[in-house]
């Protein structure tokens, strides 16, 4: 590294792949930045949250995501097409939220297409929209949802 205040030119370039030096840099510099911002003893470990539904031996649906730093993110919710509309997706989300809470998450975020069907589904489960994402993927609008707390009595849609 050039000394602070140096006039040395720093070159920037696009690289094609991740590499060990990059990983070492991130680990070292994020630890310093986090300590400076949040204090010591932070845990940024990502813990997977995996929920599946089966019909006999066949996989029928999944809810997949992670928890990190007291927050959960639901990345994928998918139910086999012939089983959609039977409440299976709601059960998967509830189990996902319960497991995320067990792992220390107090809130859950998710991102989905901005459609009436998605809005009704997630809002029924206690999620509230927190951001509109115009033309997010392939020119389609998406919405970011939040649910907190993850579990609790009297939650609409909870089973």
Description:
With 159 residues, the protein is of the alpha+beta class. 27% of the residues lie in helices and 34% in strands. It is built from three helices and six strands; from the N terminus they run αβββαβαββ. It has helices at 20-38, 88-102, 116-124, and strands spanning 47-55, 58-68, 71-79, 107-113, 128-137, 140-147. The chain has a six-stranded mixed β-sheet with strand order 1-2-3-4-6-5, with helices on one face. The radius of gyration is 20 Å and the shape is elongated. The chain starts with 19 loop residues before the first helix and ends in a 12-residue tail after the last strand. The model has no long low-confidence stretch (mean pLDDT 91).
Summed up, what is this model?
With 159 residues, this protein is of the alpha+beta class. The protein contains three helices and six strands.
């Amino acid at each position: 590294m050039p000394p602070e205040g140096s006039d040395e030119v720093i070159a920037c370039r696009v690289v094609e792949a991740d590499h060990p030096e990059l990983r070492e840099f991130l680990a070292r510099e994020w630890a310093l930045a986090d300590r400076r911002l949040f204090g010591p003893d932070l845990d940024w470990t990502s813990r997977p949250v995996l929920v599946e539904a089966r019909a006999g031996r066949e996989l029928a649906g999944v809810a997949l995501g992670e928890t990190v730093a007291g927050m959960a993110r639901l990345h994928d919710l998918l139910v086999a097409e012939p089983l959609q509309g039977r409440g299976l997706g709601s059960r998967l989300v509830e189990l996902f939220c319960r497991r995320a809470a067990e792992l220390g998450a107090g809130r859950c975020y998710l991102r989905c297409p901005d459609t009436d069907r998605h809005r009704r589904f997630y809002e029924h489960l206690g999620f509230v929209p927190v951001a509109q994402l115009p033309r997010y993927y392939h020119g389609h609008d998406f919405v970011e949802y939040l649910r907190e707390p993850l579990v609790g009595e009297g939650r609409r849609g909870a089973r």
